[in-house]
Amino acid sequence: MATTTVSLDKSLPRPRRRLPTWVYRLRRSPVGLIGAVIVTVVVVIAILAPTIAPLDPTKLNLGKRLLPPIWITGSDPTFLLGTDQLGRDMLSRLLWGSRISAVVGVAAVALSALIGVTLGLVSGFFGGWVDILISRALDSFMAIPFIVLALAVVSVLGGSLVNIIIVLGFTGWVSFARVVRGEVLTVRERDYVTAARSIGQRNRPILVRHILPNVIGSIIVLATLDVAVAIIAESSLSYLGLGVQPPTVTWGLMLADGRDHLATSWWLSTFPGLAISITVLGIIFLGDWLRDVLDPRLKK
Amino acid sequence: MTRYIARRLVLMVPVLLGVTLILFVLIRLRGDPVAAFVTPEMSAAEVEAVRVAYGFDRPLPEQYATMMARLLQGDFGRSIRYRTPAIDLILERLPATAQLAATALALAVLISLPLGLLSALYPNSLIDLVATTLSTLGRAMPNYWVGIMFILLFGVQWRWFPVSGRDDATSLVMPALTLSFGIATTLTRLLRSSMLEVVRMEYMVVARAKGLREWTVILRHGLRNALIPVLTVFGLQMAWLLGGAVIIEQVFAWPGMGRIMIQAVQGKDMAVVQAGVFIFALIVMFSNLAVDVLYAFIDPRIRYS
Q1: What residues have CB less than 8 Å from B283, skipping those under 6 apart?
Q2: Given its phi and psi angles, is residue A158 left (phi above 0), alpha (psi -120 to 50 degrees) or beta?
Q3: Which band of pLDDT confidence, cut at 50, 70 and 90, is reported for residue A7?
Q4: pLDDT reading at A192 higher than 70
Q5: pLDDT for A278-293, tens place per residue?
Q6: Nearest CB to A137: which of B16, B18, B36?
Q7: Cα(B251)–Cα(B143) distance, integer angstroms
Q8: With an 8 Å Cβ cutoff, is A238 touching chain B?
Q9: Which of A151, A157, A239 sits opposite B29 (nearest CB)?
Q10: Is pTM beyond 0.90 here?
Q11: Residue A177: which CATH number?
């Protein structure tokens, strides 16, 4: 075999370090980029809320009730987006509200994913009566509208931050279990699973090392989009007065406060809804982009 | 077809059993189930009496069997607030919810069929831009907030429609429009993408080649095929539609099942909550069945046996 020598020309500039592939992909997709920017901004706001909020979000100021946002006559420059019916600063409350949405969204989906992925893996991989049992449970949960089930659980547990996470976690697992079970059914028939089994690997390592990595793409996509669902569900429950309780600041509770002042103070009901919609929009954009990148098959 | 429906009805039994099991576990999640049926003023003896009266002193499997036996007779217990059978309270309000959901559904079809169809036929046109913008907004905006914004615009600002209650036909407009918004945007999105695939199919070329009029090609050959995947997803969305109705009813003070359920949740009126969950599950299951039967009418290739 002939040997070749390669001489390095030291005068050439060193190659630029490549950024991870997803950065390039994100740069090519304006929608994905917008989503990523929105989500990043919301997360940063949620983390920094105590520092960047101009005022105390729970401080009452009865002399400054229902002040309009700054661009409307009769406003007070201290309160950029106006005040609510108890004179609390809208902007500060909006910034603080992002924390509950972020915490509930992430925690509830993590819980749903943990339950749903486990049950889906077990159901799809082992089959038999375990599968029948889990599938019937899935059908039963799917027959009850998500919000109705959440209401029923809240009626027993009562509303609080932790309970809402539990409620949404235990009602949201269905979508994960369904998708994971379906994927496992095809993956478990692949040759590499048979190969792993033929060299004597046990069930658990096969599940964790060979099957899970092949369904993780859909799990990530589903989890992202489910954060949006959880945020809307939390705000709905809070709006109904059945979710997180005051004095905690949430966008849903802010919307509930605005209900009695619709005729006079539109900003109470407009800004929190905008905050929810923009956040959810960012998550959906990011989720759609992730789906295109990770799992084109999921595309509807 | 009759046999298919019969088999589907039999398959509902295990699912309904599952729903009752969920309810059974739910009541016991917080420890003592008696807590849901007594008020703080009751004495210990009275609480014991309630416990015995509801059978909570019996072993769990026996309690479940008793509950099932009662449910089969439509007995969900009495509302602690209204002192009437819980199932009656729910069923009394079923027509209001059905009216709202059906109107919203009809509106959604009326809006999304032309919008989805035209946006797929003229991609990147103005109508396509409107359709895609609306369907993106529909995914991002919580439907109860859409309702609030409608109240702000059509109720407060322009005073076109009443914003609460259920008096005459005009009071139906706003809640139905709000509820239809979410469904219409979903349907538009699905129909658009499904139609975009269908227009590339060879049978469309054949239909044109044999000289059919353009609209016959689009409606008979295009739309009918494009509707099949839309219907599949739509069947799965029935639960979502009813869940949406629950919150919309609260926003517009619409006296339906959702509103009384929320009231029951606030008042810890467990019998009503249980009856509500059960009836909602029944409606979802029967509408899923209806959607599956609809398939056969849209797609003659599908034959049930």
Answers
A1: B242
A2: left
A3: low
A4: yes
A5: 999 999 999 888 888 8
A6: B18
A7: 10
A8: no
A9: A157
A10: no
A11: 1.10.3720.10
- What is the rounded average pLDDT for all residues in chain B? 83
Decide if A38 touches B, using CB distance below 8 A: no
In a domain, A16, yes or no: no
Give yes or no for B91 touching A (CB within 8 A). no
Are A191 and A132 in contact by the 8 Å Cβ rule? The answer is: no
Nearest-neighbour CA in chain B from A63: distance (Å): 26
CB contact under 8 A, B262 and A152: no
pLDDT of residue A300: 43
In angstroms, the CA B163 to CA B147 distance is: 9
Q: Which among A142, A228, A239 is the nearest to B144, CB-wise? A: A239
Outline where DSSP puts E strands in chain B: none
pLDDT in tens, B233-275: 777 777 888 888 899 999 988 899 999 999 888 888 888 888 9
Does residue A5 lie in a domain region?
no
**Is the separation of the CB atoms in A41 and A79 below 8 Å?**
no
Residue range A164-185: average pLDDT?
89
Distances (CA, A) of A33 to A17, A286, A289: 22, 8, 9
Confirm if A206 and A193 have CB atoms less than 8 A apart.
yes
Judge: B142–A157 Cβ closer than 8 Å, yes or no: no
Within chain B, all domains assigned CATH 1.10.3720.10 are found at: 95-298
Write out the residue range of the structural domain in which residue A245 sits: 28-56+67-298
What is the tally of structural domains in chain A?
1
Give the pair of three-digit tokens for residue A196: 């792993």
- pLDDT of A242 strictly over 90: no
Give me the residue from A146, A155, A262 closest to B239, CB to CB.
A146
Assess if residue A166 is contained within a domain.
Answer: yes
B4-51 pLDDT, tens per residue?
Answer: 888 888 888 888 888 888 888 887 776 666 766 667 777 778 778 877
Both tokens of residue A170? 């235990």
Q: Does A146 reach chain B within 8 Å, measured CB to CB? A: yes
> Please, what CATH class does the domain formed by B95-298 belong to?
mainly alpha
Q: Is the ipTM of this complex over 0.90?
A: no
